[in-house]
Fold this sequence. Notes:
Blueprint: E1 2-6, E2 15-19, E3 29-39, H1 41-47, E4 68-76, E5 88-92, H2 95-98, E6 105-109, E7 113-115, H3 122-126, H4 129-142, E8 149-153, H5 158-169, E9 173-178, H6 180-189, E10 194-197, H7 203-210, E11 215-220, H8 225-230, E12 234-243, E13 257-261, H9 267-279, E14 286-291, H10 295-301, E15 309-313
Parallel strand pairs: 8-9, 8-11, 9-10, 11-12, 12-13, 14-15
Antiparallel strand pairs: 1-2, 3-4, 3-6, 3-15, 4-5, 5-7
Helix pairs in contact: 4-5
Amino acid sequence: xxxxxxxxFGGVDELSPRRIxxxxxxxxxxxxxxxxxxxxxxxxxxxxxxxxDAFGVASAFPYVLGWDAAGTVAAVGRNVTRFDVGExxxxxxxPVRRGGFYAAYGVVEAEFVARVPDRMPTEQAGAxxxxxxxxxxxxxxxGLRPDETLMVFGAGGGIGHMAVQLARHxxxxxxxxxxxxxxxxxxxxxGADDAIDGRKVDVLAAALEFAPxxxxxxxxxxxxxxxxxxxxxxxxxxxxxxxNGVRPVPVTPPGATVSYYDGDRSRTATxxxxxxxxxxxxxxxxxxTFPMERVKDAHRALNDHYVGKLALKVG
Length: 315
């Protein structure tokens, strides 16, 4: 099959097209014919070798990146009964173990595969899985009730713009902190009660105006000095959800409790996510989609300002 591979970790120029063997399908696996794959900031981190040995598994080359994808079922293992060949599906995987989705085909345990909701374009589904499930897990961790207040920091990014929508679906009041006029406009369009540009506005003052008694919670998807200062607006009895991998972490612990966490990619989580998608206007904002032969340009674009997600068109 066609794939984009690394023969060693390093810069953008280490990405190269190659024909490699199809992945082997185990009894509990689904083989996906990939149509679209997500391109995310952690792909660049992984490309540079920062995840080497991070999951207790030795990296093997040629190495295929890509944590998110959508396409159609090409084959299933003998224990898999809930998917049929040809069905549209999306999945979240961990490339270090079995190879990722920068390839014509990817293999994933059926537990981590879900049908694409009927109304969702495959392109959006391909860039969705890890960000949406991380957002959903963060909101679960915070356990907010309707009308409680939430600051989504990094609301124009992948996790952030999905978190805004999931929170509003639950009736939570959302203050979105984004970067740039486009990030603010996206957060407003997706339902944020208020949205501000964290680079132009005093976020702490705006947060206290939004919730004079203090915010109930925050979901932080972009770290740094501004994020750290903004967390002073959270009540001391409040909660802060911080996905693992968001850097830098706070130097000075805020007054509220910070919980670091990973996204749940189980069938239970994707079933819940799909139910929300079907019952709402949830969307994945794909800023740019690159053909697979322009994967280097896609990785360079990770350093540019954009809102939402980037994607590769694979098949």
